[in-house]
Specification:
alpha/beta, 7-stranded parallel beta sheet, 6-stranded parallel beta sheet
Length: 417
């Protein structure tokens, strides 16, 4: 392999249309540029799924964000990348993204995969039954995962950016892939929050981590329908909120999902305040955290706040219910079905077990001994010393061990943006 000049360009690929804040949060543009890299974020939401509407206009060539409206254009741009460019592929591997991975594999650029926003994944014991309950597209994704990537023209990643020690089998990882221990991006927000004076709430609060069960923008690019009836869902939530306020004496505040447009969801939570982009602060000031299944659970772990996992009859009938159960299990808890049970001031519900929280932090947020630096600074430091080289051509042997990992039973992790 021939050695070339150092990496001078970093392209971060996203499968969703980012907000201006997320361009820097998920793309690390400011930190990468301070370290001398030309940094870009490519919005591939339409390239991955043609049903996605809206999106931002393609900016000037000097801007950090570039939006692709057609998959063919994205594939052409990926295939032309030079060896001095490093690509961070922050999107899933499946039937919709396979074409993009194939184009990237034809380029001269090295690339890395991300596992920086992980949640426990429920283990599906009844595999044959699952085939009948999942969509045809989901079953095709399973098939794509089990075919050795080299047979599909996909070469292994150079780096896997990891946040925790929990297993994360990925078809793009081989024995030659370097594991770079970073941490969950939420950890950066946690460090920043610790540097600020926390204003006390006017009264004790419980924060609900809204993840847009009926209005999440990811439903578009995942081609999934929102769960059940919004009227039924919010009726169940309001009943729980009333119980929290009357029985526990805690005012319920809503931590809005950063990508939900609450301007179009007027009074969705009635008179209760919905606050976006301040989740870490809200959790820090709270006495209790209510949630379904969200990576924002990281803030409750880091600030050591008690957790109540919430579900409903409708949610339990979907894959979301299994995800909530898997997350609650990590903390030795069972989800509270608010359609069947009421909130009660149990000591166990409001208990924080430090050992369990430490184990979750190690598995999903930050491993012991990883640098106390911003995540993108850790990545930039490695890229500054990474030798650029012509990537190897895909071979079946390169991915064989990792392909076998995807079929193993046991606890694994689910990637969430």
């Amino acid at each position: 392999m021939s050695i070339h000049s150092r990496i001078n360009r970093v392209v971060v690929l996203l499968e969703f249309a980012p907000s201006p804040r997320e361009v820097n949060y998920y793309g690390g543009v400011d930190i990468l540029r301070r370290n001398g890299f030309q940094a870009e974020v490519w919005d591939l939401s339409r390239a991955v799924n043609h049903r996605v509407g809206g999106g931002l206009a393609v900016p000037d060539i000097d801007g950090p964000l570039r939006t692709f409206r057609e998959a063919a254009d994205a594939c052409e741009a990926l295939a032309q990348l030079h060896s001095s460019c490093f690509v961070v592929a922050n999107f899933g591997y499946g039937r919709r993204s396979l074409r993009l991975f194939q184009s990237l594999s034809r380029s001269r650029a090295n690339y890395g995969l991300t596992a920086l926003g992980m949640l426990p994944r429920p283990v599906l014991r009844d595999r044959w039954g699952t085939l009948w309950t999942r969509t045809a597209g989901q079953n095709v994704d399973t098939l794509v995962h089990r075919i050795p990537p080299a047979w599909l023209g996909v070469r292994p990643a150079r780096l896997m950016l990891r946040s925790g020690a929990a297993p994360y089998p990925h078809p793009g990882v081989s024995d030659s892939t370097e594991q770079l221990w970073v941490h969950a991006l939420d950890y950066d927000t946690y460090l920043q929050e610790q540097q600020h004076f926390a204003e006390e709430m006017s009264e004790p609060s419980a924060v609900f981590l809204d993840n847009g069960m009926t209005s999440h923008p990811d439903y578009a690019h995942l081609v999934r329908k929102p769960i059940g009836s919004p009227a039924d869902y919010y009726s169940s939530l309001f009943r729980m909120f009333d119980q929290v306020e009357s029985r526990l004496g805690l005012k319920v505040v809503i931590a809005g999902h950063p990508r939900c447009n609450y301007d179009q969801l007027s009074h969705i939570f009635k008179s209760r305040p919905v606050i976006q982009d301040q989740t870490a602060s809200l959790v820090r000031q709270s006495s209790l955290v209510l949630l379904h299944c969200s990576t924002a659970v990281n803030f409750a772990v880091l600030f050591e706040r008690p957790l109540i996992f919430v579900t409903t009859d409708t949610i339990d009938s979907t894959e979301h219910g299994a995800s909530i159960q898997a997350l609650a299990k990590e903390f030795g808890k069972r989800p509270l079905n608010v359609d069947r049970k009421t909130i009660f001031a149990s000591h166990q519900d409001l208990e924080v077990l430090p050992q369990i929280y430490r184990e979750y932090r190690e598995r999903y947020i930050k491993t012991a001994g990883s640098p106390e630096l911003p995540a993108w600074q850790i990545i930039a430091d490695r890229l500054l010393t990474l030798e650029t080289r012509e990537p190897p051509r895909p071979t079946a042997e390169a991915n064989e061990s990792q392909s076998e990992m995807t079929d193993m039973e046991g606890r694994s992790v689910e990637r969430v943006n």
